[in-house]
Each structure stands twice: as C-alpha cells, then as structure tokens.
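From the shared-data thread, chain only:
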Amino acid sequence: MAFTTRGGYTGDSLDLSRKVLYLDLGSNESIQFPEQVLSKWHFQKVSEPKLAQEILENNPFPVGLVQLDNLTAMQYDQVQHLVNDTPHTNWIALLHKPSLDHPTIRKLIHDLFYDYHTLPLPEVESVTRLQSTLGHAYGIEVLDTPLAKAEHYELECQMVGGSEAILNIFGQIRKVAATDAPVLITGESGTGKELIAQALHIRSDRSRGPFIPVNCGALPDTLIHSELFGHEKGAFTGAHRQNIGRIESANNGTIFLDEVGDLPLELQTYLLRFLQEKTIERLGSSKTFGVNARVIAATHVNLAEMVTQGAFREDLYFRLNVLNIQVPALRERVEDIPLLAQYFFQHLKQEGNSPARGFSRDALEYMSQYHWPGNVRELINRIRRALVMGEHKLITAEDLGLEEQLAAPLIYTLEEVRSRAEKDMLQKGMLASGNNITKAALSLGVSRVTLYNLLDKHHLRR
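Structure, as tokens:
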C-alpha cells in the first residue's frame, strides 16, 4: 500500500512525483481510499495543519487532500491559512454532501480549493472520478510554471471589453478606419487612446506603412520643432547631421500626436500648414517636402476650452476634430473590469513566478467599487504589483492596494453622483420590468422617449 504517515513509499512501480499530502483532522470516519488509487499515488498522511505546513516548506506536494466535515472554528481558520499559504499545492476538499449546505464551507472551497470530492468513497463507482480529480490537480500544478516567451507580449496592443460603451468604440473604429480624415481621440489619461490610434492604423489602408507615436507633452520646447519636422545639418548648435522628423518618418503611414494640447502656439501654426498642404519644411531649410501621412491626435484636456482661452488655435482645432472618438473612463464601464482584470492577469503572470491563480471574491468586489482615477493603466499597474508582492493563491484587495483607497472618503462632483444614481436606477428599472420599455418607463415615471434617451446616454443595452 502506497500510504505513509511520515516516511515515503519506495516501491519501484510508483512515480514519486505523484505525491498527495492527506490532512486528517481527526474525524470520526476513517477514509478508505480505493486500492487502485493507492497503487498509483504516493500518499502521506498528517493530522495537524502546522505539520502539513512544515512538510510543504521542504517537500513539494503537487496535490493535497483535506476533509472539511465538522470543522471547529479554529480548524477552519487553520485550514484556510494552510491552503492560502501553500500556493504550489492544489488542494482538494473531501466532505459529505450535507456539509455543502454550510455557506462558510462553500465559500472556503470556492475561494481556495482546486476541487472537491464527496464522501464516502465507494470501492468501484468513485474510483474513476477520484483518479480524474487527482490527475487534473496534479497536471495543472506541473504545467503551472513560468513559460519561456519567444517574444515580449505587448499588452498595449490589445483592447478588451464587452460593455455597451466599449462595443460602441469598436463600432466607431471600424467606421473611422476606412477613411483618411484626421481623427481626434479624447478621454482621460490611461483610458487607452493610443490603443485606439493603433487600431485605426492597423485597420486602415495604411497598415503596411509606419505608425509613429509622438508624446507632445514629453518633448522639450527647444526640441519639439526639430523632432516633428526635422532639421538640416547646421540648423542650430549641435545639429551635426541632417535629421528626419517624426512626421516625415510617418510617410505613407500614420502620425499619432498624443497630448496635442501641449503643443506651443508656434508649432501649432506649422502643424496647421501640414494638415492643409501636406507639406513640411525642415528646420534650417527653405525647401518643402510632401508627406503623405494621416494625422491622429489625442488629448485628455478640453481643446474647445483651450481655444476660448487663447491657448489653442481654433482653425487647428477644427482641422484635427474632423472625426472624434470619446473614450469612456474605466468607472463608466464597470462591467468590463472582471474581464480586463483576468485578461491582464493571464499575460502579466508570465513576467514572473507568481503563485497566484486568480482573484479572490473580495478583490473583484473592491475593483468594481473603486473609482479608478488612473483608468486601465492603473488597473494594469495594480495587478502587476499584486503579482510581484502577493504570496497567496488568490489576489486579494490588500494585494491590489485597494482596501486603503476605499477606506478613504472619495469626493465626487454632484454631476457624477447624479449620473451614477441615474444609471443605477435605470438598470434596476429595466431588470425589474424584464427589459420591457413600457413597464420600465412607467415604474421610473418617465416617458418612453425619455427612457430611450437615458439608455443611450448611459450606453445601456436595450
């Protein structure tokens, strides 16, 4: 029999890597494992969670078993800590069906266990299923090692979401990509404006040409002219050779001007001329060069207000704002957060050897409640931090640094409060009416036309 309490089975027929740590907390029932199972797995039995922890610190076990019937409060806490603190063991719960009616046991299994198996274990009927459960847990743990990446995966080239708001953006991208007119992308920092610019380029007839991004806010005023339009040798002190500017480099492709509102007024004049004539002059030259590049600009500020304040040219604003895409903030598409979090988790996990397998229930709840001032960029950074710093199987709100954030009072504008409350009531009204517009309008005290307008305003499905 391949079953020991402290030592190890040394039979030649047994693969010693197929080890199972069985934690028996002193239940009245002595579990009889089928002989077919014992002959293929190396079981080690312990009676205390502390002892199991010590064993796992020195000897890796890919699979663990623990019986959850009739746990005391202390045993419940001990098991919870053991399973949470041993990320490289896939734990399987053993229990009788009535125990599944206890909410605390259900939550424990749901949050931390790989699987569960009901008792008793018949000699015949349950053998195949138990073998399968053990095999799957073992296989997943063996496979769950850092993969050698053939190439770096660029998260920034992906757009993920299923909300009405993001689906609307996808529809706009398909329409706008087919044209060659300038596009102005507006939205808060971190919402993915450059992703949309890349998507427009990839789906356009210019996809084989270059995509040249320029962060106008990151270029020093003394260099921005040269960076955008290029310069000739000797044009200024230190100009030892001719330089091709970013716009000229984007010939037959796309030039993406991020934070275009940061351009000085003088440079705005040159950019306006390029948009009108499709020609540029390098600094230090009187010759003009034709450049066939589509212009996509982005900003997180209100350019119309800047025009009123005299900080942005009105004619340039209208030249850039031929087509406009407004990117929603992450808090405006809360339903996308779990999908985004899981997507980024899967790819960021490949950067290191994190023990995490996913997110705890409280982490998902905190993510849905958080305001996300940094939008998707902040979500990526918090998940990356949690993967580096976390030590458990499931990422918690604490790992994400969200507990302190939500403990501090958040200040919203009155307009934001009204908008959130309005959207919440619309969702409840539609749910209660079974998505019947007439019934929902009646219950909310508005006309059908008003309800349609409100649903469109908040990007809610009808």
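The CA atoms of residues 412 and 418 lie 10 Å apart.
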